[in-house]
What we know:
The chain is of the alpha+beta class.
Amino acid sequence: MDLFSHGLLGFVFGQALQLDTNVQIILIISSVILDIDAVHTRRSVWLQFHRGPMHSLFSATLISLAIGTTYSFLLHFSAEVFIPIFLICLGGSFSHILLDLLTPRSLAVLWPFSNEKVVFDLTSFFDPIFLGVLLPTSIFVYMVDDLSIIRIVMVVANVLFALNFGVRYFERDAAIETVKRLNVDADSKVVPLPTLRPDRWWVAVKTQSENRYNYEIYNVDSIGNKILSHSRVESPFIDYRNLTERPTNSPQKAVAFSKRDKRVGAFIEQSRLPAVNVTLSDDGGTWQVFWYDVFMQLSEGAFKGITIKVEID
Length: 313
């Protein structure tokens, strides 16, 4: 989820818990610090590291230990100081992981014990309803001093959060069922992808045959159980594995050879619907291999324009 939502959630809970200013700042930092792996201007580096090992329960625990230990030593280390700070940091960093799991980009939350990726596909990278509740709540808890009123507001806010994600959960399944009624092949994989609206979903039917992926993309009105639009994307040569050495005298060999680039490997791993186009330059001397994510092309926001281009002589 977006960095602003992460930080604002930490601020709201800090106010609700009546933490002093220094501890509130620590909670906010712990709520956003996992995104330090995204701080880089080069997309190739961003693709390789963002939402990688840093976004795991193990890393979140280590970071919480480090912050708790540092803060405690500054105040003459004692268990009475360390334990609550550690737990506060743990809550902030775990909340970051939970919010990111709701978005359509997977996390290896059990790294380094397992590299299995987890994703819930409940909301887009920016959730306007979540932020629409969170922002006025943060203003209110900042301005009001009465703890009993703050607790009531927090309960109401959390109920609204639960309703938002609960509705998205049921609407996601409704969108999937709407597409499955089209007699989807049993060997195909159905991938639901959220939009800004809880009643609008992209649902992709991914079919693999030989060395190609075929994607049937449906824009679904989940409340009306209707298909609003349909498109088809074909990606040939994407799974060609037989030869990765030169000479790259065919498009499928060019695609296979391009996978030797670490950027491409990271892009494929992070993509929900990886696809590739390959063309030969006018002089016949260079293959241009263009990797993109079909979902990113459909989505809103910063991810839309992320692609990888490899030129092979």
